Amino acid sequence: YSTFGNNLKWQKNSLTYRIENYTPDMTKSEVDDSIEKALQVWAKVTPLRFTRIYRGIADIMISFGTRDHGDYYPFDGPDGTLAHAFAPSSGIGGDAHFDDDETFTHRSNAGYVLFMVAAHEFGHSLGLSHSDDAGALMYPVYSYRNPDTFVLPRDDVNGIQSLYGPNPDKDPSVPEPKPPKTPDACDSTMVLDAVTTLRGEMLFFKDSFLWRSYPQSNTPQQSLITNFWPSAPVNIDAAYESRVSDRILLFKDRKVWAFTGYNPVPGYPKPLTSLGLPSHVRKIDAALYDTRSRKTLFFVGNSYFSYDEARRTMDRGFPKRINQTFSELTNKVTAAFQYRGFTYIYSGPYMYEYNLKTRRLYRVLRNSYFLRC
Amino acid sequence: MPISQVTEQDENFAESYLKKFFNLTEESGPTVRRGISPMSKKVSEMQRFFGLQITGMLDADTMAMMKKPRCGVPDAQTAH
After folding, report:
1. How far, in Å, CA of B21 to CA of B1, rounded?
2. How confident is the model at residue A280 (pLDDT cuts 50, 70, 90)?
3. Which residues contact A166 (CB under 8 A, 6 or more apart)?
4. What is the Cβ-side half-sphere exposure of residue A3, based on CA atoms within 13 angstroms?
5. Which of B22, B70, B77, B80 is best to mutate for the A interface (most A CBs within 10 A)?
6. In terms of C-beta density within 10 A (0-12 exposed, 13-18 middle, 19 or more buried), how is residue A27 classed?
7. Given an 8 Å threshold on Cβ–Cβ distance, is B73 in contact with A79?
8. Which pLDDT score is estimated for A216?
9. Per-position DSSP letters for A222-258, written without gaps between them
10. Phi, psi (rounded to 5 degrees) for A150
């Protein structure tokens, strides 16, 4: 996180806000609700309390405008800059302006979720500057998140509490969701949730994040899973790229989601049984598609299944015990994928490189091998 | 996108982006003749901030990041 510095923060905990006008994209009550919830994001973790006023000058004046709207920082039409806000001070300080050439929504990702944009701008109104943590609310680039399940990330909590301290009214007996931390690709103890290829790229999944690595780029890029697939689950169990249907499949608990490119495939999520897995399987640990045999391997506990996607049948003789085939694998498989003819099976913080045909183990590498630490 | 495919339009977009969010100022004076250009320095600064590969040059990742919808407050510290 970063702050504006120069002690640019409010010298009081009771702040007023006023909604000066409305966007035609949403009903008034949706705008009111979004703004109120966005302020509560910060009130929940600090002593700050917000009171709405309906006339006169509030600490935080909120308005929708387009292009040149009177503050020497003109907006730029659809997309690009969505909104901006000013650091705490008298006058325009603390005010938040939203670009009404955007399409704002209450909850859907058919436009920009006003709650998410407003929560970010109110971070500026309270004294935070931008964070370079890709998972932070104060990261400058918009990312869709479900407003109903949004929890202020740890980086932002640390930032705002560095200015105002924690919420003194918090009831310790009331459990609250833990602020999510952004995983570090180079953390040698990190255990990945899933790994897959996707049209020549490699995707590494961890918590609500993924890293995307492709040949032309030396630095894997981290972003939120929901940035790619807003309806996708997070903290997934497994993922694989189906060459048969040109889809990516994501697994979590008893369900499987499918996407073609960025688009969700209608009819998903489906139960695991739709992929031939027996009904007693409650989750899978990893999945990989073997391009040579054109079979999909599902790893479940200490066994694995082999599924023929084209015929939609589970191969005879399966499940087999994993260590029957891969004797070096003594712990649970956590992820698996194939790349340039080699099969990589993750177990804990290690990655085992196999030739699947000969079952020969070539190397044991660290999880971060492909993450170019 | 190899560098050669960066269009003039991209260049202009990038320059305006860096002026708006990373305090790129107009180029003038001897530094232009020697060493890294202010533009390249700012591209590096932007690449570092967004966790991109730091090349100082406009490439596909960098252009893609610049074109993402975002907040209008600058990324470099501009408190005043």
Report:
1. 23
2. very high
3. A45, A46, A47
4. 17
5. B70
6. exposed
7. no
8. 67
9. EEEHHHH-TT--SS-SEEEEETTTTEEEEEETTEEEE
10. -65, 135
